[in-house]
Design brief:
binds aspartic acid; 6 helices; 30% helix; binds thymidine-5'-phosphate; five-stranded antiparallel beta sheet; alpha+beta; seven-stranded antiparallel beta sheet
């Protein structure tokens, strides 16, 4: 296989494959926060994130969500359909937390009556600024219809994910998704879904996600391992 490194991200390396429409994502043993300001090598993280994200994407595919996920091919690697990533971080919040709590001066963990969807412009040099629909159009990232689709699809995915995590005693506080255009110009879910890009609280309000690393609350792989074990009980 002609595996050429196409892109090296903070959490994954992306390689070409023999099939031009398929890329191989290799999950790294690296955790970063605050746009890479905090960075550590954490043995076992890549394997856990690949396991968790593959599991969730398989379930999303089975539920009829169009995603880039093809298959997990080794402990750290998965095959994905090649997409042109839309440079947006689509965040959905079910409860107040993180930057939302900071921005509005509210405590964390307050249930939002209607989940809130936010867009951030994926641009490391600009520190991924918070933007609105009109900024998305100004930047020529997506049309009105595509913006509406991104929001609806994110809400639909939230209903599936929230239900699955509820079944295993975890509250899905918020999460970040990325989408891309496939070869036919269709928008499909891309990137990953793991405790790196969501917040999960257990019944005792323990953080079961990357906040453990961001806030120095404990061992990241210990909590990711618990999430992975709990996931097996989802129906
Ligand atoms: P925030 O409260 O810091 O804005 O984060 C909202 C959600 O998005 C949270 O689940 C963590 C996730 N997230 C990422 O996946 N990548 C990022 O770069 C940031 C800032 C947040
Ligand atoms: N994803 C960002 C980083 O890797 C920020 C974060 O998740 O806190 O630095």
């Amino acid at each position: 296989m002609s595996n050429k490194l196409l892109y090296s991200g903070k959490a994954k390396d992306i390689f070409s494959t023999d099939d031009e429409q398929v890329i191989l994502a290799r999950y790294k043993d690296q955790a970063t926060a605050f746009n890479g300001v905090k960075k550590e090598q954490i043995a076992g993280k890549g394997v856990l994130n690949n396991q968790i994200s593959s599991f969730i994407f398989e379930k999303l595919n089975a539920a009829g969500v169009a995603t880039h996920f093809i298959e997990k091919v080794s402990d750290t690697d998965q095959l994905n359909k090649k997409v042109e990533i839309i440079p947006l971080e689509v965040v959905l919040r079910n409860y107040t937390a993180g930057s939302f709590s900071k921005r509005f001066g509210v405590e964390e963990g307050i249930a939002l009556e209607t989940p809130i969807v936010e867009f951030y412009y994926k641009n490391d040099d600009l520190d991924d600024p918070f933007i609105n629909d009109e900024h998305v159009k100004f930047l020529k990232i997506a049309s009105d219809q595509e913006i509406a689709f991104l929001k609806e699809e994110t809400r639909r995915i939230n209903e599936l994910l929230s239900d699955w995590f509820r079944q295993i005693g975890l509250k899905l506080i918020d999460f970040k998704l990325e989408f891309g255009f496939d070869k036919d110009g269709k928008i499909i879910l891309a990137d990953e879904f793991s405790p790196d890009n969501c917040r999960l609280w257990d019944a005792e309000y323990h953080h079961m996600d990357k906040d453990v690393f961001r806030r120095g609350l404990g061992e990241l792989t210990d909590v990711y391992q618990v999430v992975w074990e709990k996931l097996q009980a989802i129906k």
